[in-house]
Automatic annotation (TrEMBL):
Protein's gene: aat
Organism name: Marinobacter alkaliphilus
Signal peptide: none
Family assignment from sequence similarity: Belongs to the L/F-transferase family.
Keywords carried by this UniProt record: Acyltransferase, Cytoplasm, Transferase
Domain of life where this protein originates: Bacteria
Catalytic activity reported: N-terminal L-arginyl-[protein] + L-leucyl-tRNA(Leu) = N-terminal L-leucyl-L-arginyl-[protein] + tRNA(Leu) + H(+); N-terminal L-lysyl-[protein] + L-leucyl-tRNA(Leu) = N-terminal L-leucyl-L-lysyl-[protein] + tRNA(Leu) + H(+); L-phenylalanyl-tRNA(Phe) + an N-terminal L-alpha-aminoacyl-[protein] = an N-terminal L-phenylalanyl-L-alpha-aminoacyl-[protein] + tRNA(Phe)
One GO MF term attached to the UniProt entry: leucyl-tRNA--protein transferase activity
Phylogenetic classification of the source organism: Bacteria, Pseudomonadati, Pseudomonadota, Gammaproteobacteria, Pseudomonadales
InterPro entries: Acyl_CoA_acyltransferase, Leu/Phe-tRNA_Trfase, Leu/Phe-tRNA_Trfase_C, Leu/Phe-tRNA_Trfase_N
Name listed for the protein in its UniProt record: Leucyl/phenylalanyl-tRNA--protein transferase
Length: 237
């Protein structure tokens, strides 16, 4: 860790993502700050912060990178039955502060979403860059949620939680379908998990990820705002 660059809060830069360590996978730099300018520079270059309260800010760019291409969302038979029941409604940007706090507080293994992270991403939300996606049950209660960043035609998923069975999967289907309609090319999932892989996500080399990012991050998406219009089409889908 001592050989990693320490970032000066007064100097806005990052080393190239391909200089990240192999062990631990993707660790690139330490220090800096969580200003909007630095966070946007990080994401535009395939880098994200991930650290605990007792650590300095740690910046990562893992290899391989887990991504979901919106048109590749996988819907199992059981999930299709759940979708056809229409037990949930999906919205966006209805309660960002609540979503990011629940992402932090519902993780049994602890969280990297520190108070400083909440402040930083809430600031990005006010700037129209960070977004929340909510899923509601038939009683109008929150059943799950997610937050992330939208830059160009790329969506960077940060964290997700589920309070009811299949809620997060239903959210992912609606989000992927909506992103596809808006012309988004990629959803960054950062690191793979069995849940993400079961939904159609896959790991790609960092170099491929960065190439897609360069091609898409400056291309404006096809949506006037983050109002969700996609609804599950029904049993015939």
């Amino acid at each position: 860790m001592t050989s990693l660059p320490w970032l000066d809060p007064d100097q806005l830069w990052f080393p190239p993502a391909d200089e990240a360590l192999d062990d631990p996978d993707g660790l690139l730099a330490l220090g800096g700050d969580l200003s909007s300018e630095r966070l946007l520079l990080a994401y535009r270059n395939g880098i994200f912060p991930w650290f605990s309260d007792d650590q300095p800010i740690l910046w990562w760019s893992p290899n391989p990178r887990c991504v979901l291409f919106p048109n590749e969302i996988h819907i199992s038979r059981s999930l299709r039955r759940t979708l056809n029941q229409r037990r949930f409604e999906v919205t966006a940007d209805q309660c960002f502060s609540r979503i990011i706090r629940l992402c932090a507080n519902t993780r049994a293994e602890g969280t990297w979403i520190t108070d400083d992270m909440v402040t930083a991403y809430t600031r990005l939300h006010r700037q129209g860059i960070a977004h929340s996606i909510e899923i509601w049950n038939q009683q109008g209660e929150l059943a799950g949620g997610m937050y992330g960043l939208a830059l160009g035609r790329c969506f960077f998923g940060e964290s997700m939680f589920s309070l009811e069975t299949n809620a997060s999967k239903v959210l992912m289907v609606h989000l992927a379908n909506q992103l596809a309609v808006w012309g988004y090319q990629m959803m960054d999932c950062q690191v793979e998990s069995s849940h993400l892989l079961s939904m159609g996500a896959r790991a790609i080399p960092r170099a491929e990820f960065l190439s897609i990012l360069r091609a898409c991050v400056d291309r404006k998406a096809d949506q006037p705002d983050w109002t969700f219009t996609c609804r599950w089409p029904g049993p015939e889908a």
